[in-house]
Amino acid sequence: DAKTTQPTSMDCAEGRAANLPCNHSTISGNEYVYWYRQIHSQGPQYIIHGLKNNETNEMASLIITEDRKSSTLILPHATLRDTAVYYCIVRVGAGGTSYGKLTFGQGTILTVHP
Amino acid sequence: SQTIHQWPATLVQPVGSPLSLECTVEGTSNPNLYWYRQAAGRGLQLLFYSVGIGQISSEVPQNLSASRPQDRQFILSSKKLLLSDSGFYLCAWKGYREKLFFGSGTQLSVL
């Protein structure tokens, strides 16, 4: 799976958009970008994923650059409960020999403050 | 709907004692199952995964073992715990579109 690079930490004011960047310059054509987050003392939670088109769901939006070498997770209106570690993971989709395994990096610690 | 159960939530064990952590999944059949560990201040490390009953793959050599006696049951074990086995243990299953769904975790402290 391609390696990802994320900032160690970021701050965001409550109610503002949180934009979390991720670089994945070695991504392959069949690899997806997945985002998870982990609130303290809980298991990681799936947020969103995409291949090349921008994606949006009830939690967030995912913007993937045209060359797919980077992406941005957007939390449109951050709340205090969005304070967590956010992981950007690049991996192949269904099939292959990865058996669904995910390799987590260090992620970005997002702190939302009042 | 699918749910994942993991217990206990916290566990304090002396060095050299055995360990058994259990994870069960409901609402799905033949899921891929995973054990992850997170040491204090560190990232998540994949320990084991299983694609079916009796099929276990180990990702890193260690003092732990895993078993899958039933389709929706995944067990993490150790015969003798080490201090370095302390950490936050998470079980997960793979759902639709390769998403992983995690349990609530077990915080293990080996003293």
What does this entry show, briefly?
Chain A is mainly β and 114 residues long. Chain A contains no helices and nine strands.
Q: Tell me the strand percentage band of chain A.
A: over 45%
Helix-strand makeup class of chain B? mainly beta
C-alpha end-to-end distance of chain A: 37 Å
Strands in their spatial order, largest beta sheet of chain A: 1-9-8-3-4
Strand tally of chain A is 9
Low-confidence stretches of chain A: none
User: Helical proportion of chain A?
Assistant: under 10%
The global form of chain A is: globular
Largest interface: A-B, 23 and 25 residues
Sheet with the most strands of chain A? 5 strands, mixed
Number of helices of chain B: 0
Order of helices and strands of chain A: EEEEEEEEE
Give the strand content of chain B: over 45%
Gyration radius over CA of chain A: 14 Å
Observed structural traits:
heterodimer; A: 114 residues; mainly beta; five-stranded mixed sheet; B: mainly beta; globular
Describe this structure in words.
The complex is a heterodimer of chains A (114) and B (111). Chain A has 114 residues and is mainly beta. Chain A has no helices and 9 strands. Chain A has strands at 9-13, 18-23, 31-38, 45-50, 55-56, 61-64, 70-75, 84-92, 108-113. In chain A, the strands form 2 sheets. In chain A, strands 1-9-8-3-4 form a 5-stranded mixed beta sheet, with no helix packed on it. Chain B has 111 residues and is an all-beta fold. Chain B contains no helices and 11 strands. In chain B, strands 2, 4, 5, 6, 9, 10 and 11 form a 7-stranded mixed beta sheet that branches. In chain B, strands 1-3-8-7 form a 4-stranded antiparallel beta sheet, with no helix packed on it. Chain B starts with a strand and ends with a strand. Classes of the chains: A mainly beta (114), B mainly beta (111). Chain A binds chain B through residues 32, 34, 36, 38, 41-46, 49, 91, 93-94, 99-107, and chain B through 32, 34, 36, 43-46, 49, 51, 57, 59, 88, 90, 92, 94, 97-105, 107.
